[in-house]
Amino acid sequence: MPQEYTPASGDFAEALATDLPEGRLRPVEARYLEERRGRLTGSGGTLALPRSAEEVALILSRAHEARVAVVPYGGGTGLVGGGIGPGDPLILSLEKMDGVRSVYPTENVLVAEAGAILADVQAAAVAEGRLFGLSLASEGSARIGGLLATNAGGLNVLRYGTARAQCLGLEVVTADGRIWHGLTRLWKDNTGYDLRDLFIGSEGTLGIITAAALKLAPRPAASGTALLSVPSPEAALELLGRLRARVGEGVSGFELISRAGWDFLTETGMAGQQPLDPMPDWMVLIELGLSEGQEPAAALEALFAEAAEAGLSDDGVIAQSAAQADALWSLRETIPEANRAIGAIASHDIALPLSAIPEFHRQGLEAMEAIAPLRVNAFGHLGDGNLHWNVFPPKGEDRGAYDGVRAQVTRAVHDLVAALGGSISAEHGIGRFKVDDLERYADPVKLALMRSVKDALDPRGILNPGAVLRAR
Amino acid sequence: MPQEYTPASGDFAEALATDLPEGRLRPVEARYLEERRGRLTGSGGTLALPRSAEEVALILSRAHEARVAVVPYGGGTGLVGGGIGPGDPLILSLEKMDGVRSVYPTENVLVAEAGAILADVQAAAVAEGRLFGLSLASEGSARIGGLLATNAGGLNVLRYGTARAQCLGLEVVTADGRIWHGLTRLWKDNTGYDLRDLFIGSEGTLGIITAAALKLAPRPAASGTALLSVPSPEAALELLGRLRARVGEGVSGFELISRAGWDFLTETGMAGQQPLDPMPDWMVLIELGLSEGQEPAAALEALFAEAAEAGLSDDGVIAQSAAQADALWSLRETIPEANRAIGAIASHDIALPLSAIPEFHRQGLEAMEAIAPLRVNAFGHLGDGNLHWNVFPPKGEDRGAYDGVRAQVTRAVHDLVAALGGSISAEHGIGRFKVDDLERYADPVKLALMRSVKDALDPRGILNPGAVLRAR
């Protein structure tokens, strides 16, 4: 039987409040308890809003002592229920610690507090002539602490990596309220175990990230955007290989879009101008960021000529202005919104070995067809092997009628992913929604090692219980 | 009082041998017990040469059961005594598991066994038109398992990262003999804790890496090499910023060389042709690897023109042939050899925040002068903030006479590194030589967390005892 947690509200909160400066604890508002797609509702009555690592340490040491569950809350943009916990936990938000502490342009380093909003970090980098490489749809509200805790991905992973790859150092408060001062600005450091990467991606279950030293990159001198038709996902991968041979690391984004994506945009009235006529079954959206002396438009034209000759593309548009580039990106970025409007039966954030993607898609469609005449909208970060492979009811039907097959759909998709050596969570994490799947598909030794690490770093199990690993 | 280990030789080895195929255990030869610079001599009588992960698992399960210490041995090229243990441990070498299992060129992935030699991995990548980005002086004997266990760095970290950044998946045998099948070829995977990066850099103290899935990169279409004078390390950093503005990620190497490096080469008769006249106090060796349509020589000429105008360089040579490029690189790569011939009092593998490097070097020289009229040869991977800052006796004197100040020298250097927010081990690791220093300089919370992780994953302390963390 699981051990009980002490409620955060009541005696515990009252005692804690007397030792914190005023205003650090308050009754929680509904928005901290609502999963953004309404799939989970949290509970709990107390919200903690610390303003320093020391305050976080005090809060955690008390929670540890009393065995109060602590659910860390970032920008509320997570997609796997990681920030929504049951019971009467203390909701811990670092939103008052939202500063960019310093920018070191000659070092290409920026130090931010965990509550800093991604868009603000990006802007602080740009103000110093640099670039912070993390970019995703929710960048206006996602916070650095949550982005690191979930090892967020997004649109430029191909070039700059996930959140993990963009972090040099961390300040972390442990489950029992100690502060690890690991906020180094070092590009190399081989002094002991890699605790940084252990905390990154642990979804608040091993410690609370309070600040981070982040990598910046030089800003590309010139950028270019193109949308090219491709006959198949295989052809798209071949095209990526040829593009990289031309411009090396200059490929910032390489997004796969299917005909279904466009159809959904038109169906929901969200489509802008039609970029290609006819719209092909598959397209890739390419973003280049090149150096001085390189011509992105010329590189894209040469690529298209080569692709056309090789039968890899028969239509395309190369943006001739920033507005055209924005329009092409808007097409890609509006797809998730159209998906929500239509209503997916099930969404899958999967990764595959690159060469297994075409096979996965073929077999996946067959598996769906065997269940019902379902529609699939596959799109995403092809260069990373990461597809958002979302399943919808037939046109005109409501997803409500398909509630009964949701589990079957996801099971079929994830079974296939596992069989092909893929991942059931490429960039969203495990949270609370995928705990069962993790138990089903993960290597048992990995699960046992994870449990050992959890028990070692959070022996009383107070940190985000039920996320990543089952609470016990 | 530390708990005793069971000797590997004798009863334990005899029992183990009967359960392993023939030839897996044999008396150890001297070379497995000798630290390459003679600073440490190991002991032990039994060498294990398994040929599969399953055999490694059997060996470890028995060692765990009996509490036999296991010292993993890679290519014997480590610099911190990580592969040399006291007592009668089982020496575990994966040299018989040295195959490149598969190359996936369209995925830019290569899977190798832990005993594979780096040069062989590089060659396997080249054979498929790809590049494996790890490159270092000992690549002819260093093995993948050891390179990952120590998170090795080397010459191309600026572009491709350390060993950690070039690994996608691992197969690992745990201390108690379970196999974690984590050999994925996925570029994104957010399913649970980052065990991969926990094992990488743990120097064989948390588990035994038996195979790895490694990232490959496209081969640059054209390369260029130049040696430019700079007035100071500050100027070198400024030059790097300007170079990156020109060619972005196209900078593969950016090595700082001091006048002392050249003097040591001439003093030891190892110098080739003098590249600049007069030889300046500071130089940078630049390696570019650019894409199709880019001209490395032109980029380097433009950089030099800009640098000359800005007072950042007043002399330089741009290689006009592969032979000239080799000669410039040979200058850089022969410096460690010249250092060994002259005989350092103390060597330091340090990293600093980039902007602290000039200040460190100034204060470091002052600190050395206060001890004795010592000579300093500072060189290394400037772009990573990683200097090899080695201290030598005055010209004509033998280091033997300075044994008495070695500890004082290293203490002064490391104190300064710590004060400036740096690392006392940038790329070599902790091994056995730097355990005291780690205890002195590391954040105490970090040390405590490391100990918790060690106890969780290796509860009987059999894996490489005394490396990274003190044996107990």
Automatic annotation (TrEMBL), chains A, B:
The superkingdom listed in its UniProt entry is Bacteria
Domain (FAD-binding PCMH-type) ranges: 40-219
For activity, the cofactor(s) needed are: FAD
GO MF annotation list? catalytic activity; FAD binding
Q: Which GO terms describe its biological process?
A: respiratory electron transport chain
Which key words tag this protein in UniProt? FAD, Flavoprotein
InterPro entries xrefs: FAD-bd_oxidored_4_C, FAD-bd_PCMH, FAD-bd_PCMH-like_sf, FAD-bd_PCMH_sub2, FAD-linked_Oxase-like_C, FAD-oxidored/transferase_4, Oxid_FAD_bind_N, Vanillyl_alc_oxidase_C-sub2
Q: Which family does it belong to?
A: Belongs to the FAD-binding oxidoreductase/transferase type 4 family.
Protein name (record): FAD/FMN-containing dehydrogenase
